[in-house]
């Protein structure tokens, strides 16, 4: 890995930013690292910040060309893995702000302008992530299993018993009440379990927690909570212990997953590319 200067006919791909104090040690360990497109990775010092980037042939990385390539899943997978490999190697440094995939600048001057314009914010972000890594905790819910468990509660069994022997009209209204109360009970359980997990993890992470998008899985499970936590490296075992404890406490139909450590993508705000 070497420092670089502006090159006509090239655009510049930004992987991450790091503190200048980590640059010399990192450069020694990445001399032969290749990044996106199999191209060399270089360092661009800018005061207290170093940009980690690759020079890309501009003709091959026009917006229209990239748009076409994004329809090829094999290309996307290969280049995402290349991006991630560079960022992961940079995690040898104490302070790393990873950039989003396909963060591209038209020139080195454009990179330097961004670094100068956002210098204060980037320095603060680097301080925030120093000695810390991102962890992902997901709370998953199986609606069918949760509903089945709710049906076995005393209050729901009492409604079933109350409907027995009633007239057809009475039974109809009791069935409507049963369905409504079953839905309310299941919803309350979802909210209570999610709140318990969120509060416990927030207490551990303090303000360094981000609630990411939730979604449904093909298995029928729902991602009820999708949390990113930024924790000091020495607190990883405490997180594992808390997630394990919560996993034992949640009712049937819920489960937790923990993954990491990851680069702190949710805690950076780094690398806004130029237009």
Describe the SSE topology:
Layout: E1 2-3, E2 10-19, H1 23-29, E3 42-46, E4 49-57, H2 63-69, H3 73-90, E5 96-98, E6 104-105, H4 108-117, H5 119-129, E7 132-141, H6 143-151, H7 154-163, H8 168-205, E8 209-211, E9 222-232, H9 236-249, E10 254-262
Parallel strand pairs: 1-3
Antiparallel strand pairs: 2-4, 2-5, 2-6, 3-4, 7-9, 7-10, 8-9
Helix pairs in contact: 6-8, 7-8, 8-9
What characteristics describe this protein?
275 residues; alpha+beta; Alpha-Beta Plaits; six-stranded mixed beta sheet; 9 helices
* Residue fraction in strands: 15-25%
The secondary structure category is alpha+beta
Instruction: Encode the helix/strand succession as letters.
Output: EEHEEHHEEHHEHHHEEHE
Give the total of beta strands: 10
Provide mean pLDDT, rounded.
Answer: 84
Report Rg: 25 Å
Number of domains: 2
Shape field: elongated
Provide the helix percentage: 40-55%
Distance between the termini: 27 Å
- Please, how many helices? 9
Main sheet summary: 6 strands, mixed
Enumerate the spans where pLDDT stays under 50 for 5 or more consecutive residues: none
Write up this protein.
With 275 residues, the protein is an alpha+beta fold. The protein folds into two domains: 2-130; 134-143 and 185-265, 2-Layer Sandwich (Alpha-Beta Plaits). Helix content is 45%, strand content 23%. The protein contains nine helices and ten strands. The protein has helices spanning 23-29, 63-69, 73-90, 108-117, 119-129, 143-151, 154-163, 168-205, 236-249; strands at 2-3, 10-19, 42-46, 49-57, 96-98, 104-105, 132-141, 209-211, 222-232, 254-262. Strands 1, 2, 3, 4, 5 and 6 form a six-stranded mixed β-sheet that branches. A four-stranded antiparallel β-sheet has the order 8-9-7-10. Strand 3 and strand 4 (49-57) form a beta hairpin. The longest helix has 38 residues, at 168-205. The radius of gyration is 25 Å and the shape is elongated. The two termini are 27 Å apart. The relative contact order is 0.16.
């Amino acid at each position: 890995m070497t420092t670089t200067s502006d090159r006509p006919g090239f655009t510049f791909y930004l992987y991450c930013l790091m503190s200048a104090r980590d640059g010399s040690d990192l450069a020694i360990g990445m001399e032969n690292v290749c990044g996106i497109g199999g191209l060399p990775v270089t360092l661009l010092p800018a005061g207290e910040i170093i940009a980690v980037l690759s020079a890309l042939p501009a003709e091959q990385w026009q917006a229209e060309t990239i748009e076409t390539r994004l329809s090829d899943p094999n290309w996307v997978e290969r280049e995402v893995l290349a991006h991630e490999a560079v960022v992961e190697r940079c995690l040898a440094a104490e302070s790393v702000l990873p950039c989003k995939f396909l963060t591209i600048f038209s020139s080195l001057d454009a990179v330097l302008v961004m670094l100068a314009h956002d210098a204060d914010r980037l320095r603060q972000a680097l301080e925030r992530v120093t000695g810390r890594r991102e962890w992902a905790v997901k709370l998953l819910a199986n609606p069918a299993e949760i509903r089945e468990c709710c049906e076995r509660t005393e209050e729901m069994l009492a409604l079933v018993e109350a409907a027995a022997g009633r007239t057809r009209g009475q039974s109809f209204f009791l069935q409507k009440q049963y369905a409504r109360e079953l839905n309310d009970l299941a919803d309350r359980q979802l909210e209570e379990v999610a709140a318990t997990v969120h509060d416990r993890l927030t207490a551990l992470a303090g303000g360094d927690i981000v609630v990411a998008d939730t979604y449904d899985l093909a298995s029928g499970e729902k991602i009820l909570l999708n949390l990113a936590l930024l924790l000091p490296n020495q607190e990883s075992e405490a997180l594992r212990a808390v997630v394990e404890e919560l996993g034992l406490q949640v009712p049937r139909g819920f489960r937790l997953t923990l993954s990491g450590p990851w680069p702190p993508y949710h805690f950076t705000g780094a690398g806004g590319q130029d237009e």
